[in-house]
Automatic annotation (TrEMBL):
Reaction catalyzed: ATP + H2O = ADP + phosphate + H(+)
Protein's UniProt name: RNA helicase
SUPFAM superfamilies assigned: P-loop containing nucleoside triphosphate hydrolases (SSF52540)
Chain ranges for the short sequence motif Q motif as given in the UniProt record: 40-68
Chief location category: cytoplasm
Amino acid sequence: MSEVKTKSSSNNQQDWKNQLSLPAKDTRVQTEDVTATKGNEFEDYYLKRELLMGIFEAGFEKPSPIQEESIPIALTGRDILARAKNGTGKTAAFIIPALEKINTGSPDVQCLILVPTRELALQTSQVCKTIGKHMNINVMVTTGGTNLKDDIMRLSENVHIIVGTPGRVLDLANKNVINFSKAETFIMDEADKLLSPEFTPVIEQLLGFFPKKRQVLLYSATFPLVVKSFKDKHMVKPYEINLMDELTLKGVTQYYAYVEEKQKVHCLNTLFSKLQINQSIIFCNSTNRVELLARKITELGYSCFYSHARMLQHHRNRVFHDFRNGSCRNLVCSDLLTRGIDIQAVNVVINFDFPRNAETYLHRIGRSGRFGHLGIAINLITNEDRFNLYKIEQELGTEILPIPPVIDKRLNINDHNSYNKNQPPPGLNRPRNQNNNTNEGPPGYHGNQRRNNQRQGGYNQNGENYSQQTGK
Ligand SMILES: Nc1ncnc2c1ncn2[C@@H]1O[C@H](COP(=O)(O)OP(=O)(O)OP(=O)(O)O)[C@@H](O)[C@H]1O
Ligand SMILES: [Mg+2]
């Protein structure tokens, strides 16, 4: 009898798994940054079945190292301060326990996830929706640059999780539009950025709206000293996780090219012709330089988008959305998109302007090599940057090599089999037709991308995963 029971319950177990609509398997090589796990399974954490369904349908098979460390502790309700490398799955490390704890039967706001930028808020809320897809959970994203009234309307319905940037969330809390008195989970992603002087007073005021008994979870790849005073003041015996035995990603090879300022564009042109670019992000140190460079790149005949904080939000959103979907190969931007942005198809990061500090450098180059995949970071170094290059190398304990005449393709191109058969091989960073070099579209769009882009559709290597993330 008991045998029959066991059999039928195990059939039942298999049934729900067989009915999942799983994305195509990602067969690319992965580094130890994500493979060096203890061997846990998501099922080991006794999560709700609906949550497990969302996890598996997002393409996650097993927890990454930071997820193994974070999920079981977060489920106990303890405060956490967690540090793990870029692209190793911190988002799901806090979203999975946050979703598990939500009581969907209650109309109350139960969790706040704060992030420093609007684009990251959009991305993070999408991850919540993807993983929580079968849970009947209402997630709301709220950021500056959008209509406050729309947010107020939206809050008249039940919302369980708020994902937002600090200023707008505080605004809504001050107006009593969001009631955090029943919210037990306070999460800060990119916590060190949120605890920089510009944000700290807002964060402290926001915490004041939360009940005394709340769980505070902090995540980042970088935790400078500023975090300590917050920890001492607002966290109760936090469980500290630090998976950074080294700081840089094993899969990202770093090079520099020594150039004069006026040679930079020429150098970039050479890089475009030599590198196997699937998608690239090119960082500049000011909004002016972003726009100037985007124009130069277009003049050279390559398609590119650009984004920076002085653009209208709906233009920023459109660029972000379309770049994620692979409508353009290159994105020029400021440090607005340095932290947290997860675009799996980006395999090349170029620091057209070298960043000023080690944290910014680390986060920028971490936009490639997501989830243990391979990538290349190239730094254009002028005479003035020399000492900074040395300083950042020392601080990060890493080696930035002079760029070799020929770059080994195996360094940034993953298993070609993983490319969608309908897509051309990577590395075809073909110049656009010079005659079509018009400047149509809103700011952020250089040239007529739809017509002139190197190819239509996405460049994404594991399309299924990707399209779920963007909610398409
Ligand atoms: N367990 C998993 N299995 C497979 N893929 C995963 C898993 N966890 C996360 N990923 C994927 O890994 C990528 C990187 O995850 P995520 O953005 O959370 O990294 P992160 O640690 O927050 O990086 P950053 O420090 O840059 O913000 C995402 O595309 C995500 O979907
Ligand atoms: Mg992140």
